[in-house]
Amino acid sequence: MVKIKKQHVGDIKINEKWCKGCGICVEFCAQKVLEMKNGRAVLVNIEQCTQCMLCELRCPDFAITVGGGINEK
Ligand code: SF4
Ligand code: SF4
């Protein structure tokens, strides 16, 4: 079996009701996991996510949660 190098990616959830479409998460995500679509953040590249947590930490409306993340070793 070939070992997969990429980190296991936990769930990222965007709460559409809380997202006000400010785009901060898109700006902070160096992996380009997120994009703006119809005025809301959407996940477009989840396999690139490194679980850096920046989107969750920077979202002023707490609309993003990165599953696993810092609690997952
Ligand atoms: S930072 Fe939060 S409120 Fe702003 S676009 Fe991203 S998810 Fe929406
Ligand atoms: S956890 Fe980091 S890499 Fe993943 S979507 Fe958020 S900002 Fe991008």
What does this 3D model show about the protein?
The chain has two helices and four strands. It is an alpha+beta fold and 73 residues long. The strands form two sheets. It has a two-stranded antiparallel sheet with strand order 1-4. Strands 2-3 form a two-stranded antiparallel ribbon. The chain has a single domain (12-71), classed as Alpha-Beta Plaits (2-Layer Sandwich), CATH 3.30.70.20. The protein starts with 11 loop residues before the first strand and ends in a 7-residue tail after the last strand. A hairpin with a 2-residue loop joins β2 and β3. The model is unreliable at 69-73 (pLDDT under 50). The protein has helices at 24-28, 54-58, and strands spanning 12-14, 34-37, 40-43, 64-66. 14% of the residues lie in helices and 19% in strands. Residues 12, 28-29, 31, 33-34, 49-55, 66 line the site of one iron/sulfur cluster. The site of one iron/sulfur cluster has 14 residues, from α2.
